[in-house]
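To close the section, here is one more complete example, presented without commentary so you can practise reading it yourself. The ligand is 6-O-phosphono-beta-D-glucopyranose.
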Amino acid sequence: MSSNSTSEPTIFIIFGGTGDLNARKITPALYNLFLDGWMPKQFAIIGTGRTQLTDEQFRNNMLEDINQFSRSGKAKADQWANFSKGITYQASDVKDAETYKEFGKKIEQLNTEWKTQANVIYYLAVSPNLFPIIASNLAKAKLAEDKDKTRIVIEKPFGHDLDTARELNQLLSGIFNECQIYRIDHYLGKETVQNIMAFRFANSIMEPLWNRNYIEHVQISVTEQLGVEERGDYYDGSGALRDMIQNHLLQLLCHIAMEPPVSFNADEVRDRKVDVLRAMRKFTPDDVRTSAVRGQYGTGWMKGVEVPAYRDEPKVDPQSNTETFAAIKFFVDNWRWQGVPFYVRTGKRLHQSSSVIAIQFKDVPHLIFPTEAAESWQQNRLIISIQPEMSIRLQVQAKRPGIDMVLNVVDMVFDYKGTYTQQAPEAYETLILDTMLGDQTLFMRGDQVEAAWQLVMPILNTWQHKKSLNFPNYSADSWGPESAEALIARDGFNWFTLPVNTKN
Ligand code: BG6
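Output:
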């Protein structure tokens, strides 16, 4: 396997090595990076977890994970043999100082063997209550001393609210420099999300239109058909606002609303995103009532199967007040966006799984055609489809062929499938590679996370103190509660949905 990687020799220590995230995302991503030649020539992966496993057993688990979850399909024997050479496992108690001494020894051994000082990436794919414990123990064991060579990757959730996020930031910044901390929001690694920046800032035709003079409103919808599955214990203490809006949806919003950065430098890009979060209008309790909607799914039928209500899911409180759906109308109070509503919604057990951003432009100032000519009149829309369809479509009016003048809406489409033959990498591949390369552009900076928490706190607080009396208020396989329709309908708009199996 040739290596086109410019990354230096690297040791990954994966905390949560026996967990679901490692199985589904991290392991397949590392393997695909290896297949595509992005792994450094010298690398080692040390998985760690409480379970007692031999190196062999751990490797076999990883192989099964790759066979099940990798976008490149089942591993080929020779490729797997090469990749797996560097994989070992260490059963550990992360609270025990001995654990870290063992890591220290392994790092030393590898450095001696490789005749170098390798980069060490501590990947925390564990429950958030372990973040401070692991970080502090790394510091005590002097495993985070080298500011150039050591990095820490922190999975979400980063804090449970503003205070806990601040505490965690403070603790981490006492141990690591900001440039060593890689806070993951996996949406930032998605190919289509990265492309929003390219689309906006590598084309000159967008910028003149990209403001309140031409854009009427923006919608960001991330809808999922899945319920909470096995994650009831985590989710019931979280809810849609914490789980999706505080991070993924607000980051999507930042991509749409940010000012052009001066360069593609990590801090420059992140500064512009923080500007957006700071410009967003703060909610008063009254705004929460008028501009934020919550929902919780009841039972229903999905693809012919009856599914349980949220409150009947495993490890969920039968009286739970946790929202599985949220829709919010935000404003960005600056010159570019004054008066333009940004509607965001997300939810589980909805009719369709899709992530779509719709930008609706203002209507023409004067209609020169007779009303009957404009059969299906619709203002111009730009639809950025993040997943599962990966496309950008501009909806415009066109004359239908024929001797009479009839207008209808047509799509000008850029779709990934039709344009590129190569498979897009998974978000985790991009993010892990960037961690190796030391590029933080697609990671959340400490102040970015705090600004996002600051924005959602008034909504969280209001919802927590005022229990919802009508939960469950939407049935599985619907588009969420009626109040979410009303939220946008009051302003004269509808939620945009992509037709299923859109043909280009
Ligand atoms: C995670 C949330 O961050 O994102 C999950 O915790 C959610 O609840 C998931 O299902 C959605 O990610 P994706 O990549 O499947 O859209």
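Once you have examined the tokens, check your reading against these statements. Residues 156, 224, 243 surround 6-O-phosphono-beta-D-glucopyranose (CB under 6 Å). The chain has 15 helices and 18 strands.
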